[in-house]
Design goal:
Helix content: 40-55%
Largest sheet: 7 strands, parallel
Distance between the termini: 21 Å
Strand content: 5-15%
Oligomer: single chain
Order of helices and strands: HEHEHEHEHHEHEHHEHHH
Radius of gyration: 18 Å
CATH superfamily: Metal-dependent hydrolases
CATH class: Alpha Beta
Strand order of the largest sheet: 1-2-3-4-5-6-7
Length: 302
């Protein structure tokens, strides 16, 4: 992954905790860091996973304080790869209250998709675009609004980061929350910024699963509206959400459950070139790829 990052002009990598096993405790951090080549130290960072277990959450905060490489905490408010789901509203609210009680001021990154707004019965592995119907944008929008409300109610002083937004409504909610003095940022991925759900209409249809991801690709109109927000400087960070799935997407162990995610770090440099070609200034690109990240993740990242 670090080699791909170098090829794409990406200097630092923030690894996600929904691995096997997940990164939840100190021992998991220590084992993960053993895998980092010595000459790559200082480039590799990782998130700690968030669960409903209070003792685990306390240990995650301690790891943030102790390990320079732990860049923040990650909560999955919607199901995705792995088993780090914190699904219930009251459980999510409790996370913010506990973090506020612990005086945690680092980043809490959140995967926002509200389970009650999803319809898993709509998923048909023979028709991959059905994934977009099973996880509609209203699930994301509702979850983004939930996280903002919980953070404000708890007087959370950390930086709430909404990962991989896919629609203008999510971006607008984040920017409205900034006016309420909430420390909040949002990120967009190369695939959500450029591609739409039509990518899943391929021949043969089974290949559409290559573009299955959480949250899903949106319709062309939603992508156009998101692109306007990006061009207007309303999105803080360009993030890859790199998911290195390969052969297992087309030949999963369970044909009804192909993994979600796309190896979009490969698209990072090309996406920047496309943004430039579409008139984005170097000042805004620098903000999305460096300065906003530095501000949100300070003092971990310089």
């Amino acid at each position: 992954m670090l080699q791909i990052a170098t090829q794409q002009g990406v200097d630092k990598v923030f690894d996600m905790p929904n691995t096997d096993p997940p990164i939840c405790y100190r021992k998991d951090v220590e084992e993960r860091l053993k895998l980092v080549p010595k000459d790559e130290e200082g480039r590799y960072f990782l998130y700690m996973g968030v669960t409903t277990n209070e003792a685990q959450l306390k240990e995650a905060v301690r790891c943030y304080d102790v390990f320079p490489e732990v860049v923040g905490l990650k909560m999955f408010a919607g199901s995705s790869t792995g088993n780090l789901l914190v699904a219930e509203e009251e459980e999510q609210r409790e996370v913010y209250l506990r973090l506020a009680d612990m005086s945690y001021v680092g980043v809490l990154a959140v995967h926002c998709e509200k389970e009650s707004e999803m319809d898993n019965s709509a998923w048909d592995p023979e028709n991959p675009i059905s994934h977009c119907r099973a996880r509609p944008k209203r699930a994301e929008i509702a979850s983004v609004n939930d996280q903002i409300r919980f953070a404000l109610d708890a007087e959370f002083e950390g930086n709430l980061h909404i990962c991989h937004v896919t629609c203008a409504e999510s971006v607008d909610a984040v920017n409205a929350a900034k006016k309420e003095n909430l420390r909040i940022t949002c990120g967009v991925t190369p695939h959500h910024a450029r591609w739409d759900s039509g990518m899943m209409h391929t021949v043969p249809a089974s290949l559409g699963v290559i573009y299955k991801m959480n949250p899903p690709l949106r319709c062309r109109e939603d992508v156009k509206r998101l692109q306007k927000r990006i061009g207007g400087g309303k999105v803080d960070i360009l993030e890859s959400d790199h998911a290195p799935h390969g052969e297992e997407k087309l030949h999963p162990k369970d044909p009804s459950k192909p993994p979600s995610g796309y190896p979009s770090l490969h698209e990072y440099a090309n996406t920047l070139n496309i943004l430039r070609a579409n008139g984005m200034t170097e000042e805004l690109i620098d903000a999305m790829t460096y300065y906003n990240i530095k501000k949100a993740f300070s003092p971990k990242v310089a």
